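Before any further analysis, backbone shapes were mapped to integers, which produced the following:

***
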Amino acid sequence: MGRIAQQRPAATPASAGQVARRVAILRAAAELGAEAEFDRVQMADLANRADVALGTLYRYFPTKTEVFAALFQEQIASFVNDRWQLPEGGDVLEHIGRNLAALNTTLLRSPRLCSAMLRATAAAYMREPSPEQLWLESESTLTQAILDTLGIEQPGAADHGTTLLLIYSWWGVLTSSLSRRMSPERAERELCRAASLILAHHIH
């Protein structure tokens, strides 16, 4: 019988060694999530692939859901840091839509892994999530990227709320694309349209 995860806060890495172990765990999750369906990936498999003790894994991530939800955050942050492009003229809102479409293309390179990350993130929201698990609703990397592209240096509550609405729209397009209900071309059009409609009052 698998170990029953205890509901306790995940440990926050402090030392370089702890950060390295967390990175190894997330890398293992990316590999296993691409190889097998979410339900088939076990915590013991993650610990073995990451070369950490099972107890260490549970200290960083009390549940498998939290592992894959954290991986989703990391992959989005990696895209924003490495590939999100700020506009050099042209339609700023269309530029945001195209960036979101490029993010989807990156995430969908491994549909099985993308499905696992979406499922985990949704499951975390369905419970009583910690502030860390409500990352889309706080100072997320994706939120900041959109605000930076709009040129908003001191965003207020209304700015965050509007940006969150666009992120929810992006989530829906990603889900539809994953289930093959939306082509990449249509996804880009819909994301540009969503950005244009939702963020229009930010452009003067």
